[in-house]
Design a protein that fits this description.
Blueprint lengths: L3 H20 L4 H14 L3 E7 L3 E7 L5 E7 L7 H16 L7 H5 L8 H6 L4 H24 L3 H21 L7 H11 L2 H12 L3 H28 L7
Amino acid sequence: MNTRLEMEQILNYLTKLAHALLSNGSTLEHVEYAIEKNAHAYQLTELSTVMTHQYVSICFRGTDGNTYMKQLDISTISINLEKLRILNNIMHQVSNHPIPAEQLQNILDQAQKLAITCVCFILGGKPTDMIATALVSFCLYWINLGLSKLRTDKIINNIISMFLGTILSFLLVRVGLIADTQWTLISISLLMIPGIPLVNAFRNLICGHEFNGILQLLNVFLESASLAAGMYFAVILMGGTGAW
């Protein structure tokens, strides 16, 4: 029989795993499957999960007979396929070979840049455009990292990030690195547009998760609109594209 401390460690692991999977772009069905599989590995019973893309709640009866429950809010969702790969490997590793409860947090910490320059090249950009895209993407990475620590809303983050990214692109034109901003702006837009959440939204609608699907569609629309707004404000501030 596991102790209460071990049960709480398992609960923390399950909630953080679900939170990490959802915040990095996983579907609700896959997260539920992952939690069920890991809970079964530790012989947990009466498992109950409530998940949306805003929060995750997990409740179960431990091997000591007590009931445990925890909820975590999901502040932002940022697609990261590499982190999802690592998290899925952890999930399968734990479900196939359960590890001691005290080691669960350490193994989950393993999951703690996106090369967009190739997209710029595919679209027809020159080598200087690729360099500019790499510079702007690097800056956006740190900008988004700072904003995530402030726990500001995703819509606000998108407006600020796209605004600053557009400003940086115009400045690179001013210093003579690139002739115009179109390839750089198109590339970073593709980096930030919520494409996978859009696919997940339609998938949830088709699979019967209408409420989550509709919420995701609204989020995708608002996030896309916020990106356009950030770019629009930056272009107006810099005097329009004709001024450069």
